[in-house]
Amino acid sequence: MQALREAYPGRVPIHLSNGVAYLWSVQDVEVARTQYHICGLLSGTLPLIPQQNVFLGLPLRLIPEEVVLLLRNDAGVLIDESNAYFTPTDEEQQAYLDKRAAGIAEQKERALKKQQENRERAEAALRANGDDALARRRLRQAKKGGATETPPPAQEPAAVEESFDKAPYLHITEGAPDQTPGFRPRTRRMCTEGETPNAYESLQEAFAAGVFTFPSTYVERARCAVFEDLHKQGYYMSTGLRFGGDYVVYPGDPLRYHSHYTATILSSKDEPLPAFHVIASGRLGTAVKKSHLICSVTIAEPDDEAAAKSRVAGSDTGEWGSVEYWSLAWAGFGT
User: Fold this and answer.
1) Binning pLDDT at 50, 70 and 90, where does residue 91 land?
2) Catalytic (active site) residue 261
3) Phi, psi of 302 (to 5 degrees)
4) Where is coiled-coil annotated (predicted)?
5) Which of 99, 114, 258, 309 is catalytic?
6) Catalytic-residue membership of 144
7) Residue 129, Cα to own-chain centre: how many angstroms?
8) Residue 172 — very low, low, confident or very high, per pLDDT cuts 50/70/90?
9) What is the tens place of the pLDDT at every residue in 25-47?
10) Which of 8, 22, 200, 250 is catalytic?
11) Closest CA to 13 of 236, 198, 139
12) Is 290 known to be catalytic?
């Protein structure tokens, strides 16, 4: 993974697993958000949080439009997770075993230190109470008819260490792919003779390899056209399912601003827009306290096969199409 970062400084590694794209590094999430207005959706669990339905953690899940934007702006490298794992080398295996042994030794050291602190605390309490505490203890035992017990002798340090050798220890499984031995992503530029790339630096390469084929239809290209056009105007976008649209549009970082629009995409200017749809969109925008944005797209290349050939040839680097916008608000209520 380090080799990939050195070969492509400034680019964000995008991990593609089962057709879904993820970012696994906090630094990559920060770069994507601050430099490219990519928000994504956190989908990992936070074990210390009681409820797992409000605050989530890594990885950050990306929608396909965000992946396309990063690749077209030379800001990301797409890694095919299914082909990026190999048998670890001897050096990687040894590094893993050394790290594991160091973790076990650290846990033993903490356990010994904790045991020593408890022993010192108990001895200090006995010294503070003096001989009276011991006399009262013997008196209680005599009343119960029990024999006076002598405290067990303290264990020697060697015996204590031997007991810890048999004790269970905590093993932490690495979560991020780049922390796993044998994970070696490589692009065509990084491959030696006879090697097959499993990472792709452009949308063209990923499409030609059949790893990432979005957008492959007219509607998907229309979505990319709207997403990139709004992005160029400085907006942040997120999936709009919760508010009844294709996207939720923010004027700035969602951590600082409320969204202003919910966007619905019309893939063609000729697509019919029934009156009840206009009314429903306006009322929906008012209900969620947003303006509803109707986005009409004229695609540069409407034919799917011709668009696929252009992408394989690397000639589809221009705009996906032109976009026109209409905002709707329910009269008399405002948003």
Assistant:
1) confident
2) no
3) -75, -20
4) 105-132
5) 258
6) no
7) 56
8) low
9) 999 999 999 999 999 999 988 77
10) 250
11) 198
12) yes
